[in-house]
Amino acid sequence: MYKLKQISFFLLAMALIVSCSNTAEVSDPTTEESPESNLFSVSKPMLDNTKMSLGEISAQEFFDVVQANGSIEVPMSAKAEISPMVAGFVKQVPFLVGDKVNAGDLLVELQNPEFIKMQQNYLETKEEFQFVQAEYERQKTLSEENISSTKNFQKASSDYKLKLAQLNGLRETLKLFMVDLNALEKGEFTSSMKIYSPISGFIAFLEAPIGAYVAPGDVLMMLINTSHKHLELEVFEKDVLKIAKGQQIRFRVPDAGSTYYKGTVFQVNKSIDSQKKTLLVHGLLADEEVSFLQGMYVEADILTDGVKGLAVPSRAVFEEDGAFYILRYVETTDSDYVFGKTEVKLGKANEQYTQLLNSELKEGDRILDKGVFRLIGN
Q1: Most buried of the four, 182, 234, 242, 278, by CB within 10 Å?
Q2: Looking at the domain that runs over 65-77+226-307, which CATH code has it been given?
Q3: Which of helix, strand or coil describes residue 369?
Q4: Helix crossing, 150-176 with 113-144: angle to 10°?
Q5: What is the pTM for the complete model shown?
């Protein structure tokens, strides 16, 4: 009985030892932090096989920012409204909205009986002028030879000048309507008025159904040449004195995504809009090949007062207990990369980088660039 108790006690002791052994903690061999020295170790496989990567402290330029908004526009010389100079009925429109046209292309053809009467009046006036001109020459000769009275010559001169003015007026009017005067003087009338494109571009607006009656001044279509797009930005009055020609512009089209594009201030308006209290700023696009559309709304940052300084990617900075840190590369061992937690003083920031104000840091110092939060979270 005594021996049986000894055996039972021995088996219980062995079971407890095995149980304690199985529940012992096993440390993670991939990352390790030494609280005494603020050092972090990352195993080579972990750094090489994850999204963690090394980077360097680099020199970057930081700016103060003036926020503005506006739109993509084209010069006024690149826009054209097409309106008839006489009333008529639409006979032909060979294009659709969005079509490309070249300067000189036929845009609209109108018909109106009054247009034929104008050509008839021109021919009648031309014939009358020839008669009046002959009478003027005759009276001039008679007056010079004192055969006819001065009164008759003055009447002939007045009739001549009046008819010449009428003829020239009709001639220039028909030229505006693109009438071939040489053909007209041979008796070839034009039954329609043709309107040709004054510029090359795209049709942005079209309102000319076949058969519709249009009056002088009605806008039938709008042409836009988008080969020279630019930015038109509105800057609030409080920021006006910060803006100057040559400053960089960073902008985006909110409805087209978060991508930022670049531009340059090339003209600053000289007067402030009294209603909006804003100043108009024109900017050149760095890349005019981007398929921006005229009228697109943009949000922009105008970069002013630039300063250079040492910086790291913003993702490499983390905060602990109200202080900011980066992980500087210390050394590489046989199995690990070692980083030291370094407190930093922050300066300005942009969309990618954060300025460091520490005097002991230098350009080229290696840091943990990507994966900082993955490491400090272990």
Answers
A1: 278
A2: 2.40.30.170
A3: strand
A4: 150
A5: 0.62
